[in-house]
């Protein structure tokens, strides 16, 4: 019962919702720019790894942490 309560609190967490919205926004921007997203590839492949790294760069840009 205690674990169920903890799990529900995590699902309803506003920070989690904000993170999911940010990821969805980045995916949409990447798609509009003709870029692939990590979910387009099988997990663990070299293509997936490369796109994940590029996605992380875009995430850093969106958070204002992009390298100069």
Write a concise keyword list for the protein shown above.
68 residues; single chain; 68% helix; mainly alpha
**Unreliable segments of 5+ consecutive residues:** none
Number of helices: 3
Distance between the termini: 49 Å
Biggest sheet layout: none
Task: Report the helical percentage.
Answer: 55-70%
* Strand elements, count: 0
Write down the overall mean pLDDT.
88
Beta-strand fraction estimate: under 5%
Would you mind describing this structure in some detail?
It contains three helices and no strands. The chain is mostly helical.
Q: Could you write a compact summary of the structure shown?
A:
The protein is mostly helical and 68 residues long.
Secondary structure layout:
Blueprint: H1 2-11, H2 14-32, H3 46-62
Helix pairs in contact: 2-3
């Amino acid at each position: 019962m205690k674990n169920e309560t903890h799990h529900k609190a995590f699902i309803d967490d506003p920070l989690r919702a904000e993170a999911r919205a940010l990821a969805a926004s980045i995916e949409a921007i990447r798609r509009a720019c003709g870029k692939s997203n990590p979910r387009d590839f099988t997990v663990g492949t070299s293509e997936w790894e490369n796109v994940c790294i590029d996605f992380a760069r875009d995430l850093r840009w969106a958070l204002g942490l992009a390298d100069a």
